Amino acid sequence: MIKKDSSNILTIQDLHASINGTEILKGIDFTVRSGEIHAIMGLNGSGKSTLAKVLAGHSAYEVTQGSVLFDDIDLLALPPEERARAGLFLAFQYPIEIPGVANTQFLRLAYNTVQTRRGKEELDPLEFDDFVREKMKMLDMKPDFLDRSVNEGFSGGEKKRNEVLQMALLEPKLSILDETDSGLDIDALKIVAQGVNQIANQNNAMIVVTHYQRLLDYIVPDYVHVMQSGRIVMTGGKELALELETHGYDWISANKQSLAGVSA
Amino acid sequence: MTTSLQSDYLQYLLSSWDIKPTESLSWLDRLRAEAIDQAGTQQLPTKKDEEWRFTDISPLARLPFQAATPKFDLQAKDIEHLKLKEADNRLVFVDGHFAPHLSIISGSLSHIVGNLPALTSRDTLLQSHLGKHVSIDHNVFAALNTAFLRDAAVIVFPKEFVLEQPVHLLFIATQSEVTSYPRSLIIGEPGSQATVIEDYVSLQPSAAYITNSVTEISLAEHARIQHVRVQRESNQAFHLANCAASLGHASHFQSTTVTLGAQISRYNMHIHIANEAAECDISGLSMISGRQLADTHTCIDHAKPHGISQQQHKCIVDDAAHAVFNGKIIVRPHAQRTNSSQSSRNLLLSKSAQVDTKPQLEIFADDVKCAHGATVGQLDAEEIFYLQSRGLSETEARNLLTFAFGAEIINRIPVPSLKQQLEQAVLKQTQSH
Fold first, then answer.
1. Is the pLDDT of residue B432 over 80?
2. Which of A198, A260, B83, B301 has its CA 20 to 30 A from that of A216?
3. Domain of B406?
4. Are residues B263 and B404 located together in one domain of the fold?
């Protein structure tokens, strides 16, 4: 929800990033205030997933120019784990599988690591069990989910639900959902979106990276940004996603000039 | 190493042979006599032998450790930490010698579980199995073990007998500069089901000694045996082991091996699918560091049709350690409808760590399914990033992933307390950085 007096959570200025010497992000500017949901749309290769990974601190990408403030902290100076502890969360497009580690062990480890860094109490296995089961109800997850190895043999929908569960546990200030809708059928999509909507509140913010408009029927954005060739070429409200759905991404190139006024 | 040094070594070992003939078991005397003759004709293998090309055991020739004499200073409290609470029955061997005061055999099992000399009532059965599964031809270590055979863990699971609790065979090294010759014989009669743990430990973390062990396992039709083998010897020890299992009709053999200890270790496992529709499920984990060398050679010999074998072997190699895995699968001409899969996965944690992995398929039947694969790699950067993005430091992420890699094998062990002990050992090693 857009509110005039909300504080800035994320301020990105002129962000450039490369991988193996090839520039992918070519100057990104935008600001996310608390309570807002931003959608970033674009074709494959437009740089939207790169942006998500750069914000989370993936070491394969080199930031060559620009700045990112998270609250008042210089985000780019922090290693990935410090960003997570400061309240940034990335829901992965392809969550990794960790055979040999039970999901409940992993979730508790992540939870306690982040909690202690925030100066809060750790939960023992029993306390954590109650806590996590409550959150799992929200995502319609079966209890055996906890005993299975992390993401191993999970369906696409289960993996994404597990990401949103982690998001619910870690209570991030800023969540970035990287193509969370990919590989989901409509039922799974609704459940995941419902979970995300329950987590969203006035004190946090979300960036939803997606290729398709479909997810935005269920997670309604305040802003839609369209990326092309490493830049945000257009910004609008939620109706921009519908326009894109109707006209396709080619329409952007044709209308970039005439719609330039919409761009913030 | 010169040939003369090698033969000197064997001559020296054999010259120490002073086992008194038994009164009742003359077949055993013959078995030993044959083994002495065999050992006398052989030499220590060198890297020129195909089966030993990755493993140089020449240091052994400079360590002519005599057979250990019995020393039973150990008290029950000394081995408290090694006990497994699930195991009601435990046979303890100290430097290869049976230690009755540390062992527990529940009364009802005393006629089927015990030390070899105590089970003479099963003479005929033992005679038909002991030394019949492990070959001593071209195998100097098995020949030496048999030459020095005196005490042995013997378990005979009778027909249709189901034992829920595992039997723990605990082999403890206490003396330095000796050779011990642990020996085990496990017989599963038709339809029996049981779990047996072979556990090789040292009470002195840096004692130098040699363990030369032989294990023979026989499964009759429809028998199901779960076998766990743990090697946690001292970091200066030499561990040379041969294990052979013969699988009868529709029998099921599951074996999990965890190798953590010894300066140089070599484990030969030979599985003979001796009858139709037998199934084996073999997994192994070697986790080594420093300058350790751990060599695992397995051979699954499908001699009869409709056999199923599944094998997974993993190595975690740190520092300048060196792991070897050689997995041979033989499918004989008549062993049609064999279904076999093998995977070798290896994790190198340092630049100087080394692994040699070699799948070796010899297939002579045409209607078979055989899959195999091997990977060697480092921890995956994407996996580390995933965990970092959840708040774990890079070191914590690496440790967790390394632990998980090993835990996948350890989780297969059907004995919770042992699983926990090994998880702790793996965790301790992953966190040593």
1. no
2. A260
3. 380-433
4. no
